[in-house]
Fold:
Amino acid sequence: MTVPAGGPESWPTHHSKALYARARRTITDGTSRTTLLRKGKHPIYVDHGEGAWVTDVDGNRYLDCNNNFASIIIGHADPVIAGAVQARLARGTAFSLPTDAEIELAELLCERVESFELIRFCNSGTEAVMAALKAARAYTGRPNIIKAEGAYHGTYDHAEASLSPNPTNWGQAVAPATVPYSAGTPASVADEVTVISFNDIEGARDAIHRSGDRLAAVLLDVMPNRVGMPVIESEYVRAIRDATRAVGALLVLDEVISFRLGYGGAQTQLCVDPDITALAKIIGGGFPVGAVAGRRGPMEVFVRSGGGQAKVPSGGTFAANPITMAAGHAAMAQLDGNAFARLDAVGERVRCGLRTVIARAGLDWQVTGAGSLFRVHPHNRTIRNYRDAHLSSDEAAQISEFGLRMQSHGVYFVAESLGCLNLATADSDVEHLLGAAEASLANS
Ligand code: PMP
Structure:
């Protein structure tokens, strides 16, 4: 049965429910991805996706406004990517021998971004950030890392520090506490990670100079989703870049998501010059991927010089496998200047449209984001950092309810997290999204 988009409030999801009950018998929490669980709800199991839409196992259709957490940029089941993958599949999936597919994707990426003098592939954003931090430590011979409060950089111990602090443990705004995220994180992680507040120029400068000759790198995402997708203040980036240079530390940019903001990523748009960049998501064309790219000097820690061991040996059974490389190349090659202009235009229509719908509903909410990304906040506080964006329990309940209502109106939107659009999103899809938002916010 196919239920038309925008259909009845309570669509049948009994096949999804049954699958979740079955999954819980063998998989911890019923899913390998914590991010797919909604409070008190079973996840929706997908049957297939096409373009901007996904269809669940009960036949319900949803406009996909998450796109696998911003990793799908062309559209689901894109025929060009599928063709490139099928051609490679027929030749074998993975070898303990390199392929030309790796070189093709490497060349495409290095041609686009000035700071990408050398690149190395891995399998996820978590691995890319980990490799970037290890490279920074090896290159500088220093242990410490600085990161912004609330920013998500994957699940490596140092990168996930202070991912989700709250008013009971986050300490002073001028010098936030380093709060371990996972139970069991060694105490030494807190000694090696200093947390700064996003957009706090003085705080960042202070932390960098205090860390001084123990600082390996500042790890920075210029539009961190969990910080509320605030606009980064150009003076803040500049201050971090200048201060890291002054103390001989590196700037590691996490462009795992922000690379989708433009042809040369966010760094080209913002004229930031990182030493190392972590990449993932869109560069795999829908397949698992990660990469670390950067200036020749720090990237050479991965090089085995004179037949000896590299400073940072790195491998990975599936790193640069030809399927991922071919898919990534087929996706990235489609992303020319026009494609990014279209993504920007669709994103802007959605952000503006949502603001209008919110105002019409008489709500004091706001929408942040850029390019194909957006985020809805159930309050009107100015968002410059994680604490501004942090939701009270009432606000968290409101945004979660909004997401569930959107789902019942045919929009898959993880409202507690980022909204993300793909290139296949048509004008009529934007109308559908805004209609769903109007219906979802009525009487809220
Ligand atoms: N950095 C950022 C900014 C991310 O958003 C993510 C994933 N959402 C990661 C790193 C980790 O990437 P992955 O899930 O591929 O490990």
In short: The radius of gyration is 22 Å. Residues 79-332 form a domain with the Aspartate Aminotransferase; domain 2 fold (CATH 3.40.640.10). Residues 1-9 have pLDDT under 50 and may be disordered. The CA atoms of residues 365 and 379 lie 5 Å apart.
